[in-house]
Design a protein that fits this description.
The chain contains 12 helices and 7 strands. It is an alpha+beta fold. The longest helix has 21 residues, at about 20-40.
Length: about 270
Amino acid sequence: MSWLLKILRQMTDLQVGITDVVDILIVAIVIYALLVLLRGTRAMQMLWGILILTGLYIAAQVFSLVTLSTVLSTLLAFLPIAIIVLFQQEIRRMLTAFGSTGWMRLGANNGEGPIMLNELALAVQALAAKRIGALIAVERRDTLSIWADTGIPLEAKFSYDLLLNIFVPGTPLHDGAVIIRGDRLVSASCFLPLTTRHELSSELGTRHRAAIGLSEESDALIIVVSEETGTISLAVDEQLLRPLDETTLRNALAEHLYKLRPSEELAS
């Protein structure tokens, strides 16, 4: 424990200034932001595993466990490469979140957002009642331009009738996803990334796997209507919420988009 006492003595001799405090606060904020991004994901479980291995290595050093220390030091030597491989999705998502200007769009809500959500929920319920399959991605902070470019550009103002017409079976745009940004339909017939998770139920089809896949790549809200059962689902933060109806879908969208609670009135 002499090394610990030595560190403590050195810390007591340090003179902490305003610059040091600001430096520590910035690092703390960055670490907090990383933990928020990892919260509830599989990456958090892997992070705990890395921390446990690091703790075992420190304990092996303290208690002079030579064999364990050697094995763990060899494993930890590859830690930087392992972090890049294991957390590539989270790193990409973090960089996208930092570089995205989507938060500016959310802050500039002109009051039409809640009205649009009402029409969106009504349209989804109408599609579900007719058992018409649909896949709708609602952009939040992370830009969905990469996936919007794979479809047919629309750049049309959102409307109940337009959304229903897009998903009419047999029409050129019905197959694929619709991407919504603010109060506009950006693109239709878009291709979304499929999740590679093997533990998902076999009853989930391509639309559901595409919805979960996009939720793994971005913070978007993805609505799925099953053409087999008419069930409404919402993929958010790598989770699939189902079954939903018009009311629960509207409340979930409002809460995630505008931080409104179910008790708050949307129609105004």
